[in-house]
């Protein structure tokens, strides 16, 4: 990664966070919790940019403009809202599960080859 890419990424992130700060307080609170949740759950695409998070801000800005409460936009189960957003995304848990299965298959093949 070039230094210019890092600088551009930081500028993009700062602009993104400025949009978050422009939201009503209840939206900011829920956004930050969604952000933490997504970082823990780990959709792989989250590290490729801020498209998913920017989409959430777009949705929140629209809801705020319509004077809706944030939970009217997300529903009361915010974790379920997040899960629905990433349901078709590959997560780090998926990658780990695949690697565990591959390691088990390798070990089993090696063990059965020794017994032959």
TrEMBL record:
Pfam family, one: DUF1048
The protein's name: DUF1048 domain-containing protein
Domain of life where this protein originates: Bacteria
Source organism: Clostridium rhizosphaerae
InterPro entries from the UniProt entry: UCP029876 (IPR008316)
């Amino acid at each position: 990664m070039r230094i210019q890419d890092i600088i551009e990424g930081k500028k993009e992130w700062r602009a993104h966070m400025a949009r978050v700060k422009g939201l009503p307080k209840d939206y900011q609170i829920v956004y930050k919790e969604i952000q933490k949740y997504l970082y823990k759950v780990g959709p792989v695409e989250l590290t490729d940019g801020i498209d998913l998070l920017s989409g959430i801000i777009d949705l929140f800005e629209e809801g705020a403009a319509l004077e809706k409460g944030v939970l009217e936009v997300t529903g009361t189960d915010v974790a379920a809202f997040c899960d629905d957003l990433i349901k078709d995304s590959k997560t780090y848990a998926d990658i780990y599960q695949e690697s565990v299965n591959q390691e088990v298959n390798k070990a089993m093949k090696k063990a059965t080859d020794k017994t032959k």
